[in-house]
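Dear colleague,

Following up on Tuesday's group meeting, I ran the structure prediction for the two-component complex that the binding team flagged. I've pasted the input sequences exactly as they went in, so you can double-check that nothing got truncated or mislabelled along the way. The structure tokens for the whole assembly follow below. Feel free to forward this to whoever is handling the docking comparison.

Inputs:
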Amino acid sequence: MTNNNLNKLLAFCVLFCAQKTSIVHALETKVALLLHAEPEIPKCFAEGLSDLTCFWEEDEERAGSADQYSFRYTYQNENSSECAVTALPAAGGKRLYFCRLSQTPCFVPLDIRVFRDDLLIHNRSLFIELVFLLDPPANLTLTSTGTQGQLKASWLPPSLKYMGDSMMYEVSYAMAGSHIGKVEEVQASSELILRGLQSGTKYKVRIRIKLDGISYSGYWSAWTDPVLMETMPGDLDPLIVSLSLIISLVLTLLSLIVLMSHRRFLLKKIWPIIPTPESKFQGLFKVYGGDFQEWLGHSTGGLWLRPAYFYSEEFPAPLEVLSEVSLGPALPSSALPPKASEALGEEEDEDKKLKRVDSALMEGWRETPQEHWPMDQLRAIHQHPAPWTQSSLLESHDAYVTLNAQNHSGEEPLDDILEETLPLQVLFASGRTSSESRSDLGSFQQSSGSGCLSSQSSFEYPNHTWPPKGPGYTYMAVADSGVSMDYSPISSNKIDDIGKGVIYTNEYKNEIPAHRRPIGTPIHFAF
Amino acid sequence: MELSPRLFTLLLMLLEWTRPGLPSPLRPICDLRVLKHFIEEARDAQAAMLTCKEGCGLPEPVTVPQTKVDFSVWERKNALEQAHEVQSGLWLLNQAIGSLRASVTNTALHSHIDNSLINIFRIGKVLRSLNIQECTPPAGEVSRGEETWRVSSASELLQVHVNFLRGKLQLLLSNAPVCH
């Protein structure tokens, strides 16, 4: 029994102490709040309908005992009364003096006077219903509303009669860990739905209370302890998904429309068209299957003159370059004698062709004034048989080409010609050896087409051992300016002399050799 | 003779339409924002009176109701007593502010005082809507010790006006049975 009683007493004491501690703690909080919010002295606050607590603070060194102070108060139209003053120590070397009134009426002015040793130190007039400092709302709870981004905060309002409609709440909410939050006010309510929150995020919420100031007024209460709650996790809103799909579809359609409207431009950039010469050669591929000789023979509009450098590579007849003669002045860009080029490109009877070539060339030489240049040069060489290397006219990379009146392979398929592995192979002297030239000739001979002309190159014969072919052969001097080639016949007796010189072969492979040939170096063809 | 029943019927119908009697009851005004509006205008009048220096005095002291509310005492009173207390107080205020209107020469205050008088009239209508009957003190009974007191300045009078509206009237309206 004694133990039981002792236990009960102990529990009571503990509870009492705890309550006292909490009361003291609450009082301390309110005191701190008022010291900050209220400028007048004494600072007074009401916690309920019929109480009033007033206090003031003094520095420790100037403070007197509690009985030195007297707290006198007077309601309107009433006699004054006095309140007992109590003192409590405070932080920061201060002392607090309290006076607590009960049974306090409202809506009537109250005059307060504080005396210290009969000396008035503080004076204040107030309305008690205008200095309410309530306790924070209790039981703050957060619940989910079932909707994303929302939380419902609910609390228990203070149980004060007549003031329910006057209570105003301030709800502060922020993401856990963040100091930046939002505040919402609500009046005369005990719950609030917080909207616009992030999904799947923890929020901390707290609340405080104040009276609205019409009939009753006061100070903001202390904040409640924060309550944490996580919002619902994010979910794919079907509306958002469908809208996203529609938008992506619209964007895709727009991009397709743009692409289609600019397809030509894009195709040109991504897949450039390989130019074909078909447009320039009407009917060459469609009608004649690429047979250039036949096309030349049947081409309408007469002689379609092309620059000499273009035709010179497409000689079906084998052609060997004997030497190149560099001329001082640039050669004119005159085309081959048109008859000559036409003749050389034909696949007719070999004799006829040869004669025609012969005559055409002769005619051409007579026509063009430049024809004399190679001849003049060769005459000069003949007259002055100086070493080639010392010749001012003929340079070391001179070459001579012989045209043979032989049908190497008349049955050569047209494909060879179509493939344009031309019989004419000319190699430039610079950097090339005779052995190279020989191999080129080999390939050259294989690819000789059905032309009625054959040729040999002076490169076959190194060390200047070019054998003259005899009276049956006609030699042509070819002057290549890099733009055009001029042909001039060389008499065989003169070739003997020329044969002693350095002989080179050049290779043509259906390309305009101008870019591979040193400009200004003529090529002499001898046949 | 045959026409008389028809005439009688017609007459009854006409009387039914023009039936004399009490007007239909007002819809109860329970929204306290109305009272909030009256209180704010009374505060404006009090603030304006404080700035007045001349031509804003009462010729003689007037009787005004007590504004003090002791909640424990108020709760002990029944609804009728509370209603009577509020209605008589309003009547006194009406009288006092009426006399103030007659004596104030400052034209700037006239609008405020007129507003206060109109608001007292409107409050009466609100009370009627809540089935709170008017109650005027019997003739001759000007002052009743505990419930009234006398003021001699216009500012005091208007302060009493504000406090009365904030206190007793508000308590009465917020606890009207019709609104709960």
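The radius of gyration of chain A is 59 Å.

Cheers,
M.
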